[in-house]
Structure formats: structure tokens, C-alpha cells
Amino acid sequence: MDLKELIAFRTIVEEGTFSKAAAKLNYAQSTITNQIQRLEKQLGFALFQRGWEAELTAAGRIYAEEVQSLIRHWQYAEDMAKSLEKEEIGTIAIGAVEPAAATLLPGVLKRLAAIKPAISCNVTVANTDALLQGVRDRRLDFAICGDHPLRNGLHFEPLYTEELSFIADDMHPLNGRTSLSLSDLLPYPLLAGGDNCLYHIRLDKELSALPSRPLTHTVTQLSLLPSFVQGCSWISATLASLPLPDGIQRLDVSLADPTISIGLLHQREPNYLSATKRSVIELIKEQLGK
């Protein structure tokens, strides 16, 4: 058997007919039929009942449950074989939310340059929503981001937790007060990240329990938020890890659940990543440990 035969079988199962699978894979239907016949001959049993519909046999149903793992293992073995001569060269595409990009990746890339000097890295800084799409489209090898509710089919490995927090100018009327509630913030304009930002989504969940909402502005670049609240009565929702310049303070606001899980998002389980990608992930974990 070969990888094309396995992929043809999986596609028939997904699409429901040989003709739809052939169209999806851009093959002639006879090519798909021949691939399945070869696969059945090698396996020694029929996968499909013969007819217009791609109805699985009992043995075919069992094989269908395992075929995705077989394809992943085959691709991994193929990648490893191809990488024997080029494992120490090439490019890794990494995505990261802004705080992780600022605090984690500089140290990681410096250490990577020391142990694999011919590997280059392309770093994309974006919100979790955009990073999810980058990983799904395979423009990114992996991303450090939040656990997106729509990550179906992608692997997420938690690394650490972030916390939603609020900042304001030193001279803000609420600065210095303790045990503030969200309702105390309602009279003041509020800034937050873009609508698809995970911490903005978490903020919306907290605000939904209030009878009204503050006037809200969005700024997609997290590091700019302190500049917007400086010298005025605005308040900004941000992450607790964001470094603050002089003249800006955190407000003591109690939330029902301020935590946001941050981790590694990638296409395959860690065991099926290339050795270089796994080594970058290990460097990220070591950097966190520091």
C-alpha cells in the first residue's frame, strides 16, 4: 500500500461516493477505483460493498477508524526520511499572541540560533483567531495562543495562564481604590483588544452579567493600550503580563474568572512533529521555566 491509496480510502469515507472523492482529489474515477482495488488486494479483504454508494463492509468500518492514524504515521515517517539531509536547514513559521512574542520568543530564537544556526524563523504576531487560521491553513507550523473554541482537529497543549486585568492613568479617580467591581467601571470609556481577541471575548462574558455596558473602543495592538489611557479618564482591559510604563497603574478589579489558558496550537500531535519543530517547542518550555 502507499499513502495515496490510504488518502483515497479516507476521502471516499468522508465524501460518501467514489465519484465525489475523485472530484475532490482531482482524479479520474477509474484511478480511485484502481487504488481501492490495490489496497483491498494487499489487505486481503473488501473495504466496500459493491454498488453506487460507498457502503463500508464490517472490516472496512474497522479499517476506517484507524486510517487517520495510519496516514499521520506514514506522513511522519516520510517527513523524517526527507529531513535526514536537511533537518539542520530551512525555515520554521511561528505564530504568537503579542505578550508571548515579547516575553518568550526573543530568548527562544537566540538559543535556537546557537544550536541550529542554519534554521531561520518567521514570526507572526496576531490574535488567537488569526493564528488559528494560520495553523489550519499550514502557513504557521505552530502558534503560542489561547485555546480557541473552534480549534476542531487541531492539537492544543496548555503552557500557562494569563489573567484579564484593567489599567488606568495614575490620576484616574479609581486608582488606589481596592476591591472594585465591574459595575464601578461603567461610568468610564473602556478600551479592549479587537472583537476576536480571546481576552475581549472573556471581558464580554464578564460584562454580560451587568445591567448595562460601558462605551467601548477597540485597539488591536495590545502594547498601545497604555498610551490611550494616559492623561484621561479612560480605562483599558488588558493582560496582567503587559509591562506598564510610568504613569499607568493596574486597577484592583474583582472578576468571576479572569484566567485565559495560553498554549501551543499545531496540526499534529507532538510525536508527529519534525525533530527541529519539537526542539523549538522544548526551548519554549524551557524559557517558560526560567
Overall geometry comes to: elongated
Class derived from helix and strand content: alpha/beta
Mean pLDDT: 85
Question: How would you spell out the order of helices and strands?
Answer: HHHEEHEHHEHEEEHEHEEEH
- Strand proportion, as a percent range, falls in 15-25%
CATH topology of the largest domain: D-Maltodextrin-Binding Protein, domain 2
Q: In CATH terms, what is the architecture of the largest domain?
A: 3-Layer(aba) Sandwich
Give the secondary structure arrangement, pairings included:
Elements: H1 3-15, H2 18-25, H3 29-43, E1 48-49, E2 55-56, H4 58-83, E3 90-96, H5 98-103, H6 105-115, E4 119-125, H7 128-136, E5 142-146, E6 155-169, E7 190-192, H8 198-207, E8 216-218, H9 225-229, E9 235-239, E10 248-251, E11 259-266, H10 275-289
Parallel strand pairs: 3-4, 3-5, 7-8, 7-9
Antiparallel strand pairs: 1-2, 5-11, 6-9, 6-10, 6-11
Summarize the structure in words.
There is one protein chain. With 290 residues, this protein is of the alpha/beta class. It has 3 domains: 3-83, Arc Repressor Mutant, subunit A (Orthogonal Bundle); 90-159 and 262-289, D-Maltodextrin-Binding Protein, domain 2 (3-Layer(aba) Sandwich), CATH 3.40.190; 161-259, D-Maltodextrin-Binding Protein, domain 2. It is built from 10 helices and 11 strands. The strands form 2 sheets. Strands 3, 4, 5, 6, 7, 8, 9, 10 and 11 form a 9-stranded mixed beta sheet that branches. Helix 1 packs across helix 2 (18-25). The longest helix is centred in the N-terminal third of the chain and has 26 residues, at 58-83. The mean pLDDT is 85.
